[in-house]
Amino acid sequence: MPSTPPPPRGPEACARCAARFPTCCRIAAENAECCFPLSGPEQAALRAYAGSGVVMIRQENTPLFLKSMRDLFPGEGAHVAAAFPPGGAHWRLALSQDGACVFLQPEGCTLPRDARPAYCRIFPFWVRGREIWHFAVRECQAQREQRGRSALQRCFGLSDADVLELYAALRQGWGLPPERECSSLT
Predict the structure, then answer these.
(1) What are the CA-CA distances from residue 61 to residues 24, 34, 36, 54, 102 (Å)?
(2) Which of 18, 19, 78, 186 sits between 20 and 30 A of 143, alpha carbons compared?
(3) Contact present, 175 and 85 (Cβ < 8 Å)
(4) How far is CA 33 from CA 58, 60, 93, 138, in A?
(5) Is residue 169 predicted with pLDDT exceeding 90?
(6) Can you give the residue ranges of every domain in the chain?
(7) Rounded mean pLDDT of the chain?
(8) pLDDT higher for 163 or 28?
(9) C-alpha distances in angstroms, 106 versus 16, 20, 25, 59, 140?
């Protein structure tokens, strides 16, 4: 009796998505300034992996970028402003002319999973308080194939503890305090 194949894992779903759809690794030109920032350790890891290629660019902390950061961290405007001061700048991934991450190829991301920025590894998941949820991304092949957050997490091989750890690392890398120190969050 044939067994049922296991559900596709995130990386395989991402590779199928990269070959057919816009993917979460591509951003519209008018939104490029909203691309997530890179922490110092992420910058070092990308430089070590990519060598002399242009994989990051310096981006001004524009009003649109700052708004997108405040949207990611509601109620933490002061923390966002301290980490990303208006008029300052941050490093972000470089994009190709079509808005794709420079590491995106038809087979998916060319970066080893452990070399990817925390935001790439945690996406499409996010945390508010201690509650894990996921962004609803119409183009996400994994979301088309999996129903519900738990199934989607299994698809990406991420436990609740993994998501919480990635989120904590992302906050720390971006210069934001741990959530427990944010009195406006519950």
Answers:
(1) 22, 9, 11, 20, 21
(2) 186
(3) no
(4) 10, 8, 10, 21
(5) yes
(6) 10-176
(7) 84
(8) 163
(9) 8, 8, 11, 27, 15
